[in-house]
């Protein structure tokens, strides 16, 4: 099914707020709940939806059993509407920064391991050497990181490389490997597998393994290794991020196969790790647009991330990088 929206741009009364209301309604259990979330009346929500339907010429909601239910067209429109609302939020963030006189901003999207292990150190260096520069962080999945870099929504992205031929956005990005880690098995300190010096695929049989989403680069590598070993795991729980995996392992819900970067802060004291064999190499890469030059500020932050990655296991003193005059 293809959804076509017919709007007269010169006379349309729609604005971003109408799409914000639509998204909240789609994520709520009814107009009343949506009105509470938005801080407006139920009548105002209904009026906004009515205008959206009239201007688009598409039936987005229908009453069934006395309740307003979204149509198939509404579900198809939702991802685009969410993009609209996200861009509005980012624009408001930029406007707030400008009001505060922060004209120099570096925006970075990162997945959980690098967000925990690399970026805090790079931000601290930036604060010490260039306090006039703001750093805006966005946590995102690897695929979303690449999409934001390719669409120039962020200056830099830091994440695992995607599986081959899974995302076209990577063709619009320049990339560089900045860190290499080995996948580890995360275990609660009282888990029976702690007794093993290393864990192999066959050792995981019969144990609950907390999985990452199927499209996760780590999941793709783990799945290929297990298939080669002929092992089918018991994966009844899926966590959206590696931090979520660790939170569940910390409560002894199951076993996690993760990037050890996630544990670099020591926030999960009851988790211990064991090497996984055969070894699975996990790369961390830094991305920027192949079509747009980095600002001086973004280039400096890029270098700081590189240096933090290279020295995170060493006590090496890092020298500041100077801004070029603008």
The gist of it:
This protein is of the alpha/beta class and 326 residues long. The protein folds into three domains: 16-62 and 69-85, Arc Repressor Mutant, subunit A, CATH 1.10.10; 104-180 and 283-317, Periplasmic binding protein-like II (D-Maltodextrin-Binding Protein, domain 2), CATH 3.40.190; 184-279, D-Maltodextrin-Binding Protein, domain 2. It has helices spanning 16-26, 31-38, 42-56, 72-99, 112-117, 119-129, 142-150, 217-229, 242-250, 296-311; strands at residues 61-64, 67-70, 105-110, 134-139, 156-159, 173-182, 184-188, 208-211, 234-238, 255-258, 271-275, 281-289.
- Report how far the terminal alpha carbons are from each other: 50 Å
According to CATH, what is the class of the largest domain? Alpha Beta
- Strand count, sense and closure of the main sheet? 5 strands, mixed
SS elements, strand count: 12
Q: Could you estimate the helical fraction of the residues in percent?
A: 25-40%
Q: What is the CATH architecture annotation of the largest domain?
A: 3-Layer(aba) Sandwich
Q: What global shape is seen? A: globular
At the third CATH level, what is the topology name of the largest domain?
Answer: D-Maltodextrin-Binding Protein, domain 2
Topology pattern, helix = H, strand = E: HHHEEHEHHEHEEEEHEHEEEH
Give the quaternary arrangement of the chains. single chain
- The tally of helices reads 10
Average pLDDT: 86
Class by alpha and beta content:
alpha/beta
In terms of DSSP E residues, the strand content is: 15-25%
CATH superfamily of the largest domain: Periplasmic binding protein-like II
Regions with pLDDT < 50 over 5+ consecutive residues? 4-10, 314-322
């Amino acid at each position: 099914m293809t959804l076509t929206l017919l709007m007269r741009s010169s006379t349309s009364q729609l604005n971003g707020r109408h799409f914000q209301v639509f998204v909240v309604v789609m994520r709520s259990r009814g107009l009343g709940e949506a009105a509470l979330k938005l801080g407006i009346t139920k009548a105002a929500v209904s009026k906004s939806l009515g205008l959206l339907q009239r201007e688009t010429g598409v039936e987005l909601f229908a009453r069934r059993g006395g309740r307003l239910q979204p149509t198939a067209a509404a579900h198809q429109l939702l991802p685009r509407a969410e993009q609209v609302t996200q861009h509005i939020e980012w624009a408001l963030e930029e406007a707030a920064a400008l009001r505060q006189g922060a004209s120099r901003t570096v925006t970075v999207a990162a997945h959980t391991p690098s967000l925990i292990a690399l970026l805090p150190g790079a931000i601290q260096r930036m604060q010490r050497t260039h306090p006039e520069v703001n750093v805006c962080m966005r946590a995102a999945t690897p695929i979303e990181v690449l999409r934001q870099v390719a669409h120039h929504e962020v200056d830099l992205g830091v994440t695992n490389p995607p599986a081959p031929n899974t995302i076209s956005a990577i063709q619009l990005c320049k990339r560089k490997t900045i860190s290499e880690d080995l996948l580890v098995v995360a275990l609660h300190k009282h888990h029976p597998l702690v007794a093993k010096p290393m864990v192999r695929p066959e050792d995981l049989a019969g144990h609950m393994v907390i999985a990452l989403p199927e499209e996760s680069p780590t999941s793709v590598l783990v799945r290929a290794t297990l298939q080669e070993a002929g092992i089918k795991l018991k994966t009844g729980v899926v966590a959206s991020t590696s931090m979520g995996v660790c939170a569940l392992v910390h409560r002894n819900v199951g076993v996690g196969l993760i990037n050890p970067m996630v544990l670099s802060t020591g926030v999960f004291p009851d988790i211990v790790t064991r090497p996984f064999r055969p070894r699975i190499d996990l790369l961390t890469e830094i991305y920027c647009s192949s079509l747009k030059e980095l600002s001086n500020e973004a280039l400096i932050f890029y270098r700081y991330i590189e240096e933090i990655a290279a020295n995170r296991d060493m006590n090496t003193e890092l020298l500041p990088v100077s801004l070029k005059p603008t």
